[in-house]
Amino acid sequence: MRLDSKYFDRIRTRRKREPETEQAPPTCQWDGCDKKGAHRAPVGRNAEGQFFLFCFEHVKEYNKGYNYFSGLSDGEIARYQKEATTGHRPTWTVGVNKAAKDSPLHSEIRSGAYTRVRDPFGFVKEGGKGSGPRFPQARKLKSLETKAFETMGLDANATSAEIKSRYKELVKKHHPDANGGDRGSEERFRAVIQAYQLLKQNGFC
């Protein structure tokens, strides 16, 4: 290749970088101190991300008296701590979900007293505009629940009001003060109370 070729003129070489001058470390910002300020200390509330630069001795001194909540009342401090649990992001209470208020109890779902029906306009539920579900489903009862209904002398589809009414009637009838000391009536009294408690615990009344 010829040394006087035109292609040599197009070749560009990078300039050598000049060595960067090292910046002198900042001095301590403590009044009257000329040591190196190698340690950061927070400026304070409403100045997040900003720091003072102190030497080791003065950063310890500064941190001893540092109080982020300085100037705030107890109520403001409590509010800040509460908001800090969610990262100071807005939250909504569970109560804003209107459907949660009408959601069934766990015991109702277990006993089959609640049927999962999507009813946004309230046509099916009690007190709604409609005449009720077209095909009401029978409750699925366990053996103890079936026995409790039999003890109360009620049908499995008895309403909460009917169960309570029947309970009051049987308790009044078989109460020890009203049965004249009859042992059989006393046992019946205990059985009625146990049956009612079981139905109540399982969400029937």
TrEMBL record:
The J domain sits at 147-204
Give the Basic and acidic residues compositional bias ranges: 1-11
- Family annotation (SMART domains): DnaJ (SM00271)
> Which residue ranges are recorded for the region named Disordered?
1-29
UniProt cross-references to Pfam families, sorted A to Z: DnaJ
InterPro entries found in the cross-reference section: Apopto_cytoskel_mod (IPR051938), DnaJ_domain (IPR001623), J_dom_sf (IPR036869)
UniProt keywords (A-Z) are: Chaperone
UniProt keyword Translocase present: no
What is the name of this protein?
Answer: DnaJ domain-containing protein
Q: Which organism is it from?
A: Rhizobium aouanii
